Amino acid sequence: MDVEIWSDIACPWCYIGKRRFEAALEQFEHRDDVSVTWRSFELDPAAPHERKGDRAEHLAKKYGMTVEQARAAEQRLTDAAAVESLPFRFDIARSGNTFDGHRLVHLAEAHGLQDEMKERLLRAYFTEGELMSDPDTLVRLAAEVGLDEREVRELLEGDRYADAVHADERTAGELGISAVPTFVIDRRLGASDAQPPEALLDLLRQGSAQRSPASSLA
């Protein structure tokens, strides 16, 4: 059974959703038959290399809320992440473009290290204050999971896997995916948002029981 997960590196619910999906998968009776692929989705494709200024002020402007409401929303996210043993640090988070990070995840897939790379980037962004658009940072993080530094530098200096990132995003549009994380099983069943492990486990079981063609996502 193929599970594709559309997500962004700079999406807090995507990291929380990853943990909840892992908990669901651990309970799934046929987990050894599940293949998981991480798909690219940029929440802000036009994001600069690094966005300066107060994070809460930017969020307030983007979502039409007060700065106090934005900070309260970040605290709720921090609390939700803590339940999953994820120590979010919005106070040191550095916002910027995630395109190269997505390309790196595709490179890691070619080496059988996609989940490790995705996890390392999420942890670096949300708990360590790393900048996802910085080439030296990406090289270091990739080396930590076992990728070759020279190959990673060559990737970042060129446009390798750029088409793969864009293809993922086009497919998301074709499937009607507009929010992440979104979990898709065999291109037949789908669920958006960081749902509880029980709901994701139910989705996995539905996918296992319905291994026949269907025309659209549920």
- The total count of strands amounts to 4
Oligomeric state of the chains in view: single chain
Number of DSSP helical runs: 9
* Relative strand content: 5-15%
CATH architecture: 3-Layer(aba) Sandwich
Overview of the molecule:
With 218 residues, this protein is of the alpha+beta class. It has a single domain, classed as Glutaredoxin (3-Layer(aba) Sandwich). 52% of the residues lie in helices and 9% in strands. It is built from 9 helices and 4 strands. The chain has a 4-stranded mixed beta sheet, with helices on both faces. A hairpin with a 3-residue loop joins β3 and β4. α2 packs across α3, α4 runs antiparallel to α5 and α6 packs antiparallel against α7. The C terminus is likely disordered.
Please describe the topology of this protein.
Blueprint: E1 2-7, H1 12-27, E2 35-40, H2 55-63, H3 67-83, H4 99-110, H5 114-127, H6 135-144, H7 149-157, H8 162-174, E3 182-185, E4 189-192, H9 197-209
Parallel strand pairs: 1-2
Antiparallel strand pairs: 1-3, 3-4
